[in-house]
Design brief:
The structure is a homodimer.
Chain A: E1 2-6, H1 7-17, E2 32-38, E3 41-47, E4 51-58, E5 60-63, E6 65-70, H2 71-80, E7 85-91, E8 95-100, E9 103-108, E10 126-130, H3 131-142, E11 156-162, E12 165-171, E13 175-182, E14 189-194, H4 195-204, E15 211-216, E16 220-224, E17 228-233, E18 252-257, H5 258-269, E19 279-285, E20 288-295, E21 298-305, E22 307-309, E23 313-318, H6 319-328, E24 333-338, E25 345-349, E26 355-359
Antiparallel strand pairs in A: 1-5, 1-7, 2-3, 2-6, 3-4, 4-17, 7-8, 8-9, 10-15, 11-12, 11-14, 12-13, 13-26, 15-16, 16-17, 18-22, 18-24, 19-20, 19-23, 20-21, 24-25, 25-26
Chain lengths: 369, 369
């Protein structure tokens, strides 16, 4: 193997494929990056079996070949090189030589034949969506996946195409995060992607209007970003029928400024850290909402202007869930819909109808304060 | 106690005094910040006995008084308040009330009488130096203090005033860091400040030409920055006679570009991580220096242009020590002076004569490669 390529391109490709290398695999070869040089390009692959990332760069290939190089060492060597052309070639004794200007390094390589082959996916049933938009949808749902493995399917995010809409859904028994965007696609798709791999994918997606092409197979999803391809295993099993959980009707509805509400809840939650309950109480009144918390640390009372449609209500929440979703929403005004003090609360943007969040309240004993 | 002050000023004062609160003290009251309101100002104090920081802010004091508040909780509450006036007042049941716009918080306070008193220092023998300059001198020496406690005096930085110069010196048995600046002061002072407290002081010093006034007592040093005062305990004992360690003569001397040399050593050191030796070899030739390393991971060879005065030499170093000092120096060109392959190497700026670094080489068996 022998090729010459640009340091900056190689560094970017390495940094992308490294996102799949978790170091948790028991196969030593998966600590490495597979390099395959032929036909004027070099393909780099990083994988932990569940997630595989492939990046291609153009190169001047003088001799075809493939090797596996320790991901960390190879990445650090390339990163510290000057911004210039890098020559990588096979050397004696199972090693490869890296030359850049006056820098020479020789490192041992592993055998590329030991590297597992990626699932072979034919990209014929493709749908496309803007990278920026998908990245935003992922960010808006991943935080709500279940952290414990009691129900493995809930550690993933549902990708659903239905009625020309792409829906992403995550839920963990205490809350639901639902994001939806129209797509020009008639297929009906239902796949659950592990939350961990999805958060790596979201790091690779760029804040650009350029599209990512997505292909589903029974066991995998492929994100094709042009020079980079990401393949994730799907979770097996049926996702929960989320639509039956989210209440469609409500008795009262408030409109509030998102960042103001977030600040009030964050301040009140400082007193609610005790015993990890994070309990904050909402006292919804005409034009006003009082948020209180109370613990051995002290007491907090916050007041925020709201617009109320319906009757006053008292309700309590684990502030953590509200803080997480209010941080992720991006509209200035939000709407919260309530049925009673023990029924779920639904949070939406005031203007755009592209997200629905649901949070379960915490039951509290009725008091007079 | 009752006063009103600006949130931003209070937050800055809290963040400064918190730098002294390590949470390692066994006295619960030292987890707190002492607030003392009187005469139109509020004094805040944080301390772990070794290091005490006092910050004063102007306030509208309606009722004198003093309390101790949990540093973390109080700090977080203030930080999350809107940028506005904050009213802090004593409340019933050993608690204080914090009011800002529509936010109310009540937190328990500790008794200010339990708070240890700070050493009483009369600021009559003062010398002054620009904050920026002192901060830079600290940064240029602290990294070289001894990390282990075998010789406690070496965990500190020597502050020495001699011949109208302020010298800061740190050494750990493998290297010496020496910074010197002229000061308009005739006194003769010799004090050793714990490295840990000094690194907190350096965070408080600002990148400004405004001066800091420094007072020494037999057991303490006081840094007076106007609104903030920092008092550190001194280490007991004699510092090592550093001047006899730093060689004044040399047989050969090279001049090199600092950042280029740093990059070469960093790249070579990637192969030298094994067994924590960080061993890199320098082969100093006419016009050229070859830096090599060699381990089971692989080999590296770097070449850098130099100007050599004297005879060629082979010498080896623990790259960690050279990397740390080259990162901290700020001139473009540096000079290294050598006597032999087993004698210390001295590193200086090429132009400015304000720093001297010394590093011991690692003895290696002579080889022919």
């Amino acid at each position: 193997m022998k090729f010459i390529c640009e340091k900056s391109m190689l560094q970017e490709a390495i940094s992308n494929v490294q996102k799949a290398i978790t170091g948790k695999s028991t196969m030593p070869v998966l600590q490495g990056i597979l390099l395959d040089a032929r036909n004027g390009e070099v393909t780099l692959i990083g994988s932990d079996i569940d997630l595989s990332i492939e990046a291609k760069i153009t190169a001047d290939v003088m001799e075809d070949g493939s090797v596996v190089l320790d991901s960390k060492l190879f990445g650090e060597i390339i990163r510290k090189l000057p911004n210039s052309a890098v020559e990588i070639s096979s050397d004696e004794n199972n090693s490869i030589k890296i030359v850049c200007q006056k820098s020479y390094a020789t490192i041992i390589h592993m055998d590329s034949e030991d590297y597992p082959s990626l699932p072979d996916i034919i990209e014929n049933m493709v749908f496309s969506i803007s990278q920026k938009l998908l990245k935003n949808m992922m960010k808006g749902t991943i935080f709500a996946v279940a952290q414990d493995e009691t129900r493995p399917i809930l550690t993933g995010v549902l990708f659903e195409i239905k009625n020309k809409k792409l829906n992403l859904v995550a839920l963990d028994g205490y809350r639901v995060a639902f994001r939806s965007e129209p797509v020009d696609n008639d297929s009906s798709i239902n796949a659950v992607i592990p939350g961990k791999t999805l958060s790596e994918v979201s790091k690779i997606l760029e804040e650009t209007d350029e599209v990512v092409n997505i292909t589903f197979t029974p066991n995998h999803i492929l994100f094709n970003l042009g020079k980079t391809k990401v393949i994730s295993r799907l979770l097996e099993g049926e996702f929960i029928k989320y639509s039956s959980i989210i209440p469609e009707e409500y008795n009262l509805k408030i409109t509030a400024k998102r960042s103001e509400l977030l600040n009030c809840i964050e301040r009140a939650s400082l007193m609610a850290k005790e015993g990890n309950t994070n309990l904050v109480k909402f006292n919804i009144e005409e034009d006003n909402m009082i948020i209180t918390s109370n613990s051995q640390l002290g007491k907090a009372r916050e007041e925020i202007n709201i617009i109320l449609q319906g009757e006053p209500l008292q309700i309590a929440f684990n502030s953590k869930y509200l803080i997480e979703l209010l941080k992720i929403m991006d509209e200035e005004e939000i709407v919260m819909e309530f049925s009673s003090g023990v029924n779920p609360c639904v949070v939406r943007n005031k203007e755009k109808d592209n997200c629905t969040y649901m949070v379960l309240p915490v039951r509290i004993r009725a008091t007079n304060n």
